[in-house]
Amino acid sequence: MLRSLSGPDSSQVTPADGIKAGVFSSLSTEEMKAVAKKLRRNIVSMIGTAGSGHPGGSLSAVEIVTSLFFNVMRHKPGQPCWQDRDRFILSKGHAAPLLYATLAECGYFPQEELSTLRKLGSRLQGHTDCRLTPGVEVTAGALGQGLSIAIGVALAGRLDEKEYRVYALLGDGECNEGQVWEAAMSAAHFKVDNLVAIVDRNGLQLDGWSNEIMNMEPFVAKWKAFGWHIQEVNGHDITELLDAFEKSKSIKGKPSVIIAHTIKGKGVSFMENQVSFHGKAPNAEQVENALKELS
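Above: the chain sequence. Below: its structure as tokens.
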């Protein structure tokens, strides 16, 4: 959990150590595991309350996003537009509940606001909207665009002589989109080495197993052929993720991609590897059972 002692909203930020007086520090692995469990509980609760949303792909990427926001990235909840912040681009925008739960835990807005997911007038729309929600970098919805945006943001940092890094989270089903590979080609061409793409490789998309809908194998070899530095990790192992993010900082002259092998619906037994929970909210009984598992 994070705290900022600077910025106009710092009085509302109550979580523990993280960012103090603008100086970034990080949580331990054990602390991040506890945060990940809390994020999963909030994801299930907010989608259940809304009666709609995408639990499967939100739950699968929890450790990825936890590692970034609570250890790897430099950011200030009290100053969402701090120019030197690292940027997180949620390309798989339907995983908005995960990002909202994370931002609330960091202190970008009150946690009570999570219960307004998908309600009229809420800042927490079904897909992210950077005009509404503090801490959201990109308005999402149409899949396949986030990597292109991330490249532009990374190149802007280079032109502005900034040292920030850009992290883009993609779904593996999203990689069906041709724009992803056009972006991959241009990132290598322009040697965008302040960019890290993370693929949430959970194997499922809206209506089935990804490789049955559009076989992308050899997936790793494709990224290599497009000129990227590649790492494969267990996407639920925080230590492996942290090591991969640290390694990516040493890669010069080419972009980095982390293929994170995950389980759709991770943490809730009846959601794991179930395509039906790609975009279906749990009912009240299922919410209760899920929260017991995550207690």
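Residues 134 and 204 are 30 Å apart (CA to CA).
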